[in-house]
């Protein structure tokens, strides 16, 4: 199968590694020319989770391009860009989504599906998210940060033939994947928990597991989760995971040695997805008349960090 991955960041590269190893033709689309040249010259560099020696990097064949227009056709599109790049990425790939070609969104944020619907038919979208973790180590190189399931679902809740085909494909490539009926509710659960982990870990710049070492960080994250849950309930979102606290503890234990994706962005001087995470929960809360002062505070703190890291050194 010919698969186009929109986004050559950590998760996009990790997907490319597994899909290529599974015998499929993977093409990554990313605007960073350095990333493109690295992948096209050597393939995607891959380090196992426990590896520490740079000599442990193996290279997996893949193709990379700067623009989706450089690809003429494909069988499947996977959206793995940051939330703020969703609309631009999908607009550039509309020619690939003619006919029956589906697009899977694998993003941790709210509002991405609504953005996609501005330019493509809702029926072409397969919702999804992953609990896999990864870290970009340089142009075209990725290190696996932890195993985790990927969940995919049709937006109408049906277990369709194409959904089963795609999940089977993922599983055959070593990506543990499950088709589900209530994908939107599951996505909200992940965003509520992971937006809290992302934001709180970014302030003191600690690994995910270290969030469990201090009662202050646990209390703060629980408060963020409580606000997120109230917003979801006000919007009548079907939250699949009833114990969001346990989801938080399990996530931190599973990725204890990882830096959150938001902290990676802060350390690399990049824009974060705070607007699609805590920011989106705060916005939905305002619409529903639900106070979310802690969510809004985290948005302001992260934006201050973004500005600070963007400042030139004195």
What does this structure look like?
The chain is built from 11 helices and 12 strands. It is of the alpha/beta class and about 325 residues long. The chain has an 8-stranded mixed sheet with strand order 5-2-1-6-7-8-11-12, with helices on both faces. Strand 1, helix 1 and strand 2 form a beta-alpha-beta unit. The N and C termini lie far apart (about 50 Å).
What's a concise summary of this model?
The protein is α/β, with parallel strands linked by helices. It has eleven helices and twelve strands.
Number of strands: 12
Amount of beta strand: 15-25%
Task: Sketch the major β-sheet.
Answer: 8 strands, mixed
The Cα radius of gyration reads 19 Å
Helix count from the secondary structure assignment: 11
Q: What are the secondary-structure elements, in order, as H or E? A: EHEHEEEEHEHEEEEHEHHHHHH
Low-confidence stretches: none
Query: Distance between the terminal alpha carbons, to the nearest Å?
Result: 51 Å
List keywords for this structure.
alpha/beta; globular; 11 helices; 314 residues; 42% helix; 12 strands
Describe how the helices and strands are arranged.
Elements: E1 2-6, H1 10-21, E2 25-29, H2 33-42, E3 44-47, E4 58-60, E5 63-65, E6 76-79, H3 86-92, E7 103-105, H4 112-116, E8 125-130, E9 133-138, E10 141-146, E11 150-154, H5 161-172, E12 177-179, H6 183-202, H7 215-234, H8 244-254, H9 261-267, H10 278-288, H11 293-310
Helix pairs in contact: 6-7, 6-8, 6-9, 6-11, 7-10, 10-11
